[in-house]
């Protein structure tokens, strides 16, 4: 797969401590350990709540992660377990054993103040992990940002358009922006002014999904009839 480049302005950034680059990165010789460590930085940064952690069992069932470590799931799990042991031995990650109904699981945290506090609380029996795990789909599903939508559906960005998109992203909900682009494409009105008008109308008058669906049906019917007349 060829990577086509980062968008001009991506509001979602992953926070990685500077010490990782100055004290850890160049000490890692195993690419699988590096892959796992960066992946865990990403996973934990997407989580909310006072304590961010990952279950060992969730790591072992993550098909995307396993695929990055090898073509065979069984072998990939062995590679993952080895990479995790290396990261824990290095001190980048911490783990604690958690009793479960059907045995035990391991909780993985960053070696940060919050991570260390969580591990110590678990060892003292003062804190229990939630039984819920994060669904796999939620880990990888994310709304494309407004710049990606523009480039994919309209064309290259200009400085003036980029400023307008940046303002719009701060003003409107991500799902509204995505839906407005989709509607513009369906109606063959691929320009920012049309999309912005849809968003402004929704903000000022409220969004009526039933009306949007009817408008879409009317547009499709008009196109069908136009095609019949041309023939």
Describe the structure.
This protein has helices spanning 18-24, 31-45, 56-60, 63-69, 73-90, 113-123, 136-140, 146-153, 159-171, 174-186, 192-205, 209-230, and strands at residues 54-55, 93-100, 103-110. The protein is mainly alpha-helical and 231 residues long. The protein has two domains: 18-140, Winged helix-like DNA-binding domain superfamily/Winged helix DNA-binding domain (Arc Repressor Mutant, subunit A, Orthogonal Bundle); 146-230, Arc Repressor Mutant, subunit A, CATH 1.10.10. A hairpin with a 2-residue loop joins strand 2 (93-100) and strand 3 (103-110). Helix 2 (31-45) packs across helix 5 (73-90) and helix 4 (63-69) packs across helix 5 (73-90). It is elongated, with a radius of gyration of 24 Å. Mean pLDDT is 81; it is low at 134-141 and 225-231.
List keywords for this structure.
single chain, 231 residues, mainly alpha, Arc Repressor Mutant, subunit A, 2 domains, three-stranded antiparallel beta sheet, 60% helix, elongated, disordered C terminus
């Amino acid at each position: 797969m060829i990577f086509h480049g980062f968008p001009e302005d991506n509001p979602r950034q992953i926070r990685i401590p500077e010490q990782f680059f100055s004290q850890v990165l160049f000490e890692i010789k195993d690419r699988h350990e590096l892959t796992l460590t960066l992946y865990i930085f990403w996973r934990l940064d997407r989580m909310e709540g006072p304590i961010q952690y990952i279950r060992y069992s969730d790591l072992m069932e993550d098909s995307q992660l396993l695929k990055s470590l090898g073509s065979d799931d069984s072998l990939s799990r062995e590679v993952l377990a080895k990479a995790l042991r290396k990261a824990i031995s290095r001190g980048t990650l911490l783990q604690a054993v958690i009793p479960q109904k059907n045995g035990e699981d391991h909780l993985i945290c960053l070696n940060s103040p919050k991570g260390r506090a969580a591990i110590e609380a678990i060892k003292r029996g003062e804190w229990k992990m939630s039984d819920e795990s994060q669904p796999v789909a939620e880990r990888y599903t994310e709304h494309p940002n407004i710049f990606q939508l523009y480039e994919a559906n309209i064309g290259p960005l200009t400085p003036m358009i980029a400023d307008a998109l940046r303002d719009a992203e701060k003003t409107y909900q991500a799902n509204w922006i995505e839906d407005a682009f989709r509607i513009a494409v369906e109606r063959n009105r691929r320009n920012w002014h049309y999309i912005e008008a849809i968003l402004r109308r929704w903000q000022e008058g409220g969004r009526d999904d039933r009306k949007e669906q009817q408008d879409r049906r009317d547009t499709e019917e008009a196109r069908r009839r136009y095609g019949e007349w041309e023939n």
